[in-house]
Amino acid sequence: xxxxxxxxxxxxxxxxxxxxxxxxxxxxxxxxxxxxxxxxxxxxxxxxxxxxxxxxxxxxxxxxxxxxxxxxxxxxxxxxxxxxxxxxxxxxxxxxxxxxxxxxxxxxxxxxxxxxxxxxxxxxxxxxxxxxxxxxxxxxxxxxxxxxxxxxxxxxxxxxxxxxxxxxxxxxxxxxxxxxxxxxxxxxxxxxxxxxxxxxxxxxxxxxxxxxxxxxxxxxxxxxxxxxxxxxxxxxxxxxxxxxxxxxxxxxxxxxxxxxxxxxxxxxxxxxxxxxxxxxxxxxxxxxxxxxxxxxxxxxxx
Length: 302
Description:
Blueprint: E1 18-21, E2 24-28, E3 41-45, E4 50-53, H1 60-70, E5 75-79, H2 85-88, H3 91-98, E6 101-104, E7 134-135, E8 141-143, E9 148-153, E10 162-166, E11 171-175, H4 193-204, E12 210-213, E13 219-220, H5 222-245, H6 251-258, H7 267-283, E14 287-289, E15 299-301
Parallel strand pairs: 4-5, 5-6, 6-7, 11-12
Antiparallel strand pairs: 1-2, 2-3, 3-4, 8-9, 9-10, 10-11, 12-13, 14-15
């Protein structure tokens, strides 16, 4: 059985590109936090012309580092794995500077917005006004002069989440879907556990050599990590059911049973993660509750 082992160390310098393979470099944005690790990873792919994957936060320092790494080569495309602000707030100014086309999955404008009290970071984290020039769906291919990528739709962390597979190489930009430094936050209603686990299965069926994530260092043996992620989610689901059976009959009471010795600033994210598991257990017919689900609404096992 594969176990989930986190790789939290990274060798990098803010503002300096790190080679990730032929024609790929990584820049780490200066926005570290408990939810972004060392910062958002921005990738440049290509040789004669470039695509930027995840422009990161709105940071003059980071944008200058991207342009310096481009070294005069045209940036023709800016791709987004998903419209969370730590990934897309830097898009508008980078587009204005370069004239690049923005490509991403188009969010459903009718989808519900996350209330501030349902934010794992305590602030609004989704750019609902983000609109790409090029709309991508799963299976769509996008290319430049000497690079090509195929989009893989992987909802769960976000409904619009895309991973990108590199043409001719077993390399995938995995965004926030699979990372080495921590598990992915699934925060309802933006996140949905049923979608997330189904999306993990999509990546499990591949045969890749490396994942390049949105935060943290590269992942070798990525399918082994995906299996460990699935096992971890199954274990977490069992822990939620055990806590409920043991008398913790609300999400708020379950959280300290499942997440022991948790830092206070991570309690909101943990609460939302438990809610995501409870929602999935309700879908499976294993738990019952009146809706809408809240941290203090009574739960019962079926």
